[in-house]
Amino acid sequence: MISQKAKYALRALVSLARTGRGETMMIGEISKQQAIPKKFLEQILLELKRAGFVASRRGRAGGYELLRAPEEIMFGEVLRLIDGPIAPLPCLSKIAYKRCKDCRDEQSCEIRHVFERVTLATREVLDRTTLADSLRLEDIPV
Q1: pTM of the full predicted structure?
Q2: Using one digit for the tens of pLDDT, what is the confidence trace for 42-69?
Q3: May I ask the CATH class of domain 4-66?
Q4: For the chain, what are the domain ranges?
Q5: Angle of the 38-50 helix axis to the 4-19 helix axis, nearest 10
Q6: What is the spatial distance between Cα 93 and Cα 32, in angstroms, rounded to a whole number?
């Protein structure tokens, strides 16, 4: 399950993707449109800014904008930024691998084998689904 923070991050990015290239959106607009608490959204946008997903501008035409095209931002990379590894078991994580304490042998672990297939399928979908895809629901790759 993804965290509420990751869900809000994705929703904020989708809002910005709808605005169009070079257009900005005020934090209050995003907050209202996506029903995200403003203070929480500020923290999320700061994290997305540090990671190079968004930029902020001050002044009359200020607000937040995407730094990359919606076609270049994958759901998987956003989820990894906010929630960390995409793996239901620590022994399946690529970047935070940790052997399960109660496991005698990973090679013969039936549970690991099933969840490995689930994890690979999940990563495949998330790593090829873009913000642009999410705006065209019927076109999301399965």
Answers
A1: 0.84
A2: 999 999 999 999 999 887 777 999 999 9
A3: mainly alpha
A4: 4-66, 85-139
A5: 80
A6: 36
